[in-house]
Design goal:
The complex is a heterodimer of chains A (458) and B (375). Chain A is mostly helical and 458 residues long. Chain A has 18 helices and no strands. Chain B is of the alpha/beta class. The chains are: A mainly alpha (458), B alpha/beta (375).
Chain lengths: 458, 375
């Protein structure tokens, strides 16, 4: 059950809100846990079992580390839990262990969605507890809620334990928060159902042609559609998650802050999947860079951590290449950034680099990616063909809408307009806008009932 | 101000969601959708395995979608919005001004397994096996599709299927016959299947292979029994902008005549059937006028006095084809494996026939489970 399904929106969501708000204040955390477990169970009891295993193993390990703090014995539970977490993600994210599913009783063909986020969160918590940066959580209920909290399960922000427990402790629920939450939820839903799904159709249409017969125009349309669709899918799901958390009074941070169409790759990188990026910076880049002050060494570490980030996306070479391209581009850019670029040139150059990098996220293998890039460069001696014009004609509107919606132009316009009438009108009509988009999404979901395409299985 | 707006949003949205979820929960549950012409999903049964692998929730999600309030109206609006948002593809149906076409051809699974099953049927069979694979309208009118779908997918699928079949199976190339005639009304505009005329064009070649000379076109009286037929593609896309279809029945002017037409299901219940069941024209899927609602087995006896019997193993393409065979055989047994749960051999013994005709649409061919029932 993904958030973008009728069963969730008109079934689970009102049900969980009702049960949450009729529960007395002191028991609400437990109610949230119960609802989250129900959500996990609905994804399959095997999924609930896996999440419970994560909870028990990591909770026990944290408690044991806490008890043996400062002693060498603390390393044993630390290492054991680390191995468990890493083994779990390897088993489910790579294809090498499919044969072992029957041994652990895991049904075939089921992917535990969101497992990559849970693993990152668990690893981070273990490291923090081991280093003594945070003290271990005593309550298994709160720890279980950290693992299973359903609004952040699918693609929600990777939160460090401290931020999560702070948000949980300082809940401010109520009608006001529900209003904000549902607005954000509908925003995310629209991103997914209206924009991402249609752009993914465009990408699929392009990919039905062999890259060797592809014109440059078609290839560029395809990769632009992929990049936008990826952004709208991931930010859509995380918006839905953030919105849902708001409904329960928890303010979680946004994952994306308008990363596309920036004037520098650096800005793109700083705004793309921020919470996950923070994790890699915090647990990989920083500790490793402390070994040496050498500039070259630090740059290597920087590239390495981006490679790791990319690897986490795809679990193959392509992901690593994506990370390395971006990191290398940022390093080169920082070196030459004294030359000021015009805004337009900057946007174009950033888009071109991110598009080339995105080819590696989109394609199945390195050779496939290279052939695709070859087509983008016009290597097939075709710059535009009838297919390109056909797709352009039908998708240009949604592409332009997506491009506009992926920037912060509208938000900035609202901010700049100050206390003018324009802003008042927008604010007053907000409920109507939200309702309209909710109806629109419901209509678009009415045939299939859900929109589960997530591009990347994280 | 902001807080008031937020609260107002919350109230409106909660109200909206609650109305729909109450309607979904309490609303009447139809078991059949007239507009969509299909059985709607039933409330899934709880089982240990479906709970463990989460398929229970998937079915529940399907169920919720199928019984969503005002579903049919929403789908009709959906098709209009969808066609504006992107290409003219709605729920996998390509909408051109003239006709609706299925776009799923490229995603069809390989037909190799089906071919194997038919080969092993052929190996254990003493008579002659004839094989016709019929393209869908999307294959015959592929040039109407968007440029990237025009790669003759169906013709390639059919020729790869034919090359996987044993050499002694007699194959009839329906694709090229139909492709050449695609100026004529051989396929419905809103359905993926052929019209009676399309079936007639293929019949001319098939019947020669079976050892008869075809009945000339002018020997038939043709009745337009229906001029408001909306097919499966219309039901899927909800797009009403394409002209409704005409359904024809062909009757031979001579004295040949159907004596009896009986259907049988797997439990052995006998049903009376008609070659043309006009009562079905009032049902939601008028195509069932040909031979009535699909049954595992239908036996047609005619007054042709040559004691020749034909076994036809087929899918819905065949039900409209049988009308042309009645002038040549004294008994025709039509078997639809897709309607059979167990083995085909429980229904009929192929050894009693010296000719077997397989007639399938290419999209049934990619479902190997249909053909595994043959053996």
């Amino acid at each position: 059950m993904v958030y973008s399904s009728l069963l969730f929106i008109y079934g689970f969501l009102p049900f969980s809100l009702l049960f949450y708000y009729i529960t007395p204040n002191r028991q609400r955390e437990k109610m949230l846990l119960l609802l989250s477990m129900l959500f996990c169970g609905a994804m399959g009891l095997c999924y609930l079992g896996l999440m419970l295993a994560y909870t028990v193993v990591n909770y026990t390990a944290c408690r044991m580390i806490g008890k043996n703090r400062g002693k060498p014995a603390a390393a044993v539970p630390f290492a054991a839990a680390m191995i468990f977490d890493l083994a779990a993600i390897l088993v489910f994210r790579t294809k090498y262990f499919i044969g072992s599913y029957s041994i652990i009783g895991w049904p075939e063909g089921i992917f535990p969605i969101g497992i990559s986020f849970v693993t990152l969160a668990m690893l981070g918590t273990l490291i923090d507890v081991y280093n003594g940066r945070i003290s271990e959580e005593k309550s298994i209920f709160r720890f279980a809620l950290y693992v299973m909290f359903f609004p952040k399960l699918i693609m929600g922000p990777v939160l460090r334990y401290r931020s999560f427990s702070k948000a949980l402790g300082s809940r401010r629920d109520g009608l006001n928060e529900i209003g904000i939450g549902i607005s954000i939820f509908v925003k995310g839903l629209s991103k997914k159902v209206i924009v991402a799904d249609n752009l993914y159709m465009l990408y699929k249409a392009v990919r039905s042609v062999d890259p060797a017969d592809m014109s440059a125009m078609t290839a560029w349309l395809g990769i632009a559609a992929f990049l936008l669709s990826l952004y709208f899918t991931m930010s859509g799901f995380s918006d839905m998650g953030v919105g849902l958390s708001h409904c329960f009074g928890m303010r979680l941070p946004q994952c994306f802050s308008y990363p596309l169409f920036r004037t520098k790759i650096r800005y793109f990188a700083a705004r793309w999947h921020m919470q996950a990026m923070h994790w890699f910076r915090h647990y990989i880049t920083k500790p490793l860079s402390s070994f040496s002050r050498s500039r070259i060494f630090r740059r290597c570490i920087y590239i390495l951590s981006w490679g790791a980030f990319g690897f986490w996306y795809r679990f193959d070479m392509n992901g690593i290449v994506w990370g390395i391209i971006l990191a290398a581009a940022i390093i080169v850019e920082n070196r030459f950034s004294k030359h000021r670029l015009l805004a337009v040139t900057g946007v174009i150059y950033t888009f071109i680099i991110t598009a080339f990098a995105a080819v590696f996220l989109a394609c199945d293998s390195i050779s496939d990616s290279l052939r695709y890039i070859f087509a983008m460069l016009g290597g097939n001696k075709m710059f535009a063909d009838s297919l390109g014009f056909y797709l352009f004609r039908y998708y240009v509107v949604i592409l332009l809408v997506a491009m506009y919606a992926s920037t912060d132009l509208f938000r900035n316009m609202l901010i700049r307009s100050g206390k003018t009438r324009f802003r008042t009108v927008i604010a007053a009509s907000a409920p109507l806008i939200v309702l309209t988009f909710a109806v629109l999404c419901t209509i678009l979901l009415s045939y299939s009932g859900s929109s589960g395409m997530i591009i990347m299985k994280l | 101000m902001n807080e008031r707006v937020n609260k107002f949003t919350a109230v409106i949205m909660l109200g909206f969601i609650c109305i729909f979820s109450a309607a979904m929960l309490l609303g009447g549950k139809e078991s059949f959708s007239v507009d969509e012409n299909r059985e709607l999903t039933e409330m899934p049964e709880v089982s240990a395995s479906s709970l463990i692998n989460g398929s229970f929730t998937e079915q529940l999600s399907r169920y919720a979608a199928d019984h969503f309030p005002a579903r049919e109206k929403l789908i009709a609006i959906d098709s209009r919005i969808q066609a504006e948002l992107s290409e003219k593809i709605v729920n996998g149906v390509f909408v051109s001004g003239e006709r609706l076409l299925d776009t799923g051809a490229a995603d069809r699974p390989d037909t190799e397994k089906s071919a194997e099953a038919i080969n092993s049927f052929n190996d254990s069979y003493n008579g002659a096996v004839y094989f016709v694979c019929v393209p869908t309208s999307a294959g015959v009118y592929s040039e109407t599709l968007p440029p990237y779908m025009q790669k003759n997918t169906e013709s390639r699928q059919i020729s790869s299927l034919y090359s996987n079949l044993s050499a002694d199976i007699r194959k009839i190339d329906a694709y090229n016959i139909l492709k050449m005639l695609n100026d004529s009304y051989i396929f419905y505009r809103s359905d993926s299947k052929w019209t009676s005329y399309g079936a007639y064009c293929v019949y001319r070649t098939v019947i020669q292979k079976l050892g008869f000379s075809p009945t000339a076109y002018d020997k038939y009286t043709i009745d337009h029994v229906e001029n408001d037929f909306r097919g499966d593609l219309y039901h899927r896309s909800g797009y009403a902008g394409v002209k409704a279809d005409i359904m024809d029945i062909y009757r031979c002017k001579g004295d040949t005549n159907v004596i009896s037409c009986t259907g049988r299901d797997e439990r052995g219940n006998i049903y009376k059937r008609h070659l043309f069941d006009k009562a079905e024209l009032d049902s939601s899927y008028k195509y069932n006028m040909y031979l009535g609602k699909p049954l595992p087995l239908v036996k047609v006896k005619t007054n042709v006095n040559n004691q020749r019997k034909l076994l036809v193993i087929t899918d819905s393409f065949g039900s409209c084809f049988v009308q042309f065979l009645t002038q040549h055989y004294s008994e025709i047994t039509v078997v639809m494996p897709s309607e059979i749960k167990g083995s085909v051999r429980n229904m009929v013994d192929p050894g009693k026939f010296d000719q077997t005709l397989f007639l399938f649409g290419i999209d049934s061919m990619s479902d190997s489970s249909i053909f595994e029932k043959l053996n």
